[in-house]
Amino acid sequence: MAINQKVLEEMLNQYPSKVKRNRKKHIIIKDSALARQEIEANTRTIPGIITNRGCAFAGCKGVVLGPLKDVIHIVHGPIGCAFYTWGARRNKAKSEDPTKNFINYCVSTDMQESDIVFGGEKKLARMIDEVMEIFKPNAITISATCPVGLIGDDLQAVAKAAQEKHGIPILAFNCEGYKGVSQSAGHHIANNGLMEGVIGQGDWEEAPGKYPINILGEYNIGGDSWEVERILKEIGYTVIAVMTGDGSYEELKNAHVAELNLVQCHRSINYIADMLETKYGTPWLKVNFIGVQDTIDSLRNMALYFGDPALIQKTEEVIARELARVEPILGQYKKICQGKTAFCFVGGSRGHHYQGLYAELGIETVLAGYEFAHRDDYEGRDVIPEIKLDADTKNIPDLHVTPDERRFRLKISPERMEELKKKIPLSNYKGMNIEMKDGSIIVDDLNHFETEEFIRLLKPDIFSSGIKDKYVVQKMGIPSKQLHSYDYSGPYAGFNGAVNFARDIAMAFTSPTWNFITPPWKNEPLLEGIIAEGGCSKC
Length: 539
Prior knowledge:
It contains 22 helices and 14 strands. By secondary structure, it is α/β, with parallel strands linked by helices. It has a domain at 58-177: Rossmann fold (3-Layer(aba) Sandwich). The strands form three sheets. Strands 1-12-11-10-13-14 form a six-stranded mixed β-sheet, with helices on both faces. The protein has a four-stranded parallel β-sheet with strand order 3-2-4-5, sandwiched between helices. It is globular and about 85 Å long. The mean pLDDT is 94. Its EC number is 1.18.6.1. This molybdenum-iron protein is part of the nitrogenase complex that catalyzes the key enzymatic reactions in nitrogen fixation. InterPro entries: Nase/OxRdtase_comp1 (IPR000510), Nase_comp1_asu (IPR010143), Nase_comp1_CS (IPR000318), Nase_Mo-Fe_asu (IPR005972). It comes from Desulforamulus hydrothermalis Lam5 = DSM 18033. One of its GO terms (cellular component) is molybdenum-iron nitrogenase complex.
């Protein structure tokens, strides 16, 4: 069943009038005949509504900082907050020095009631001393949780004193969960901190190899980054740093020497991409390594940027070899997946990225959206000047950088830059909406009620989202592919990742378990009515 404005209106009528007015702005039906379709995003979730969003602390420590492997990440707050951002994201990391890989550790000050009353600064200082004695990391981060902000512990002062005492970088992030409307605020806070305290602190002035790049917004979920790096290194690229999957402080501090920054997850890392371009003159390229064709397009765009005929030829050779290997395998799974439909509601840029991979398997995405996006993630960066800053946005300090007097240099000429912008997404992202089909539904901050209603109306064959709503959907008899941590599978990026994803989706469709589950709409009538007592009044 296709959803039109009338059906959407009937669904929203179940809300109280004030809630309806709010949520209506967050839902659009794609119509390319309209000159513009504006969607509201990055506003607070209505109290009482069950949302998939996380908090600012989750975005800062859990998403951006947590994957750095040679850093000890101290969570200053209750132990539950530390556990919430540890272990669930499946950020994989490996190190040549096993004593400098702390990815499996969860370190917390474990604040108790007495710490809330009397303050936790001394406890935090002791924790830093203990971490230095046991682990001897290359750097330390301290992430604040809600109680810390409420009682007023001065993280910056504690970090500064500890840095002078121990002689290593100790970075404090005031990312209390209540700052901002979602985890997006935490991304911004983390980006600012890394830009101020890490990037550019290294002593490299030139890259150690040809075609030096940074990969931004790649968090190595299930090994994604390793698959992407496998391809890039074989072509001939020198990967300086990954922000931050399988990344390290030692690599990140020299990120300034790259000639090009690749942006995978636009929302979580676009702040750093912009600042690197301003400070060091390094352009960024929007890429997508999810799906075969999108991976190919990204590789070709990279080669076009550098413009070296040898690099372009090597790129085509690798693409041809990988295609010959994976296309026969994907063809088998496509027979199972062909003609099915999907919901793709995932944070970051994944709600956009996975639509291409679904399409390659013959699956049409009929609903998509983001948990914590801003309007530019939907409508493209051209709308950024039009976005009004509200109180929540102003709560996150903007870091204003200027060109580095010593290290700034244009990586390509302005003329070449303008020429490339006409061909590739250089320092630009057109947003998710532009590639959605007419009639498809685009939803920002999808909630539990809307999830059930849209499933009842559209009856998708598979649902892609996060862990919070996975089991509810499966109880409706619909397979759910969890795309935040991949359900202990992966990688899903690159050529090998596409094969892994196709295998898992095909298994989800063919699992016999769905024969034992009856969707609610098969037990309950879709039309209801009552028979008045006494029969017809005219009889």
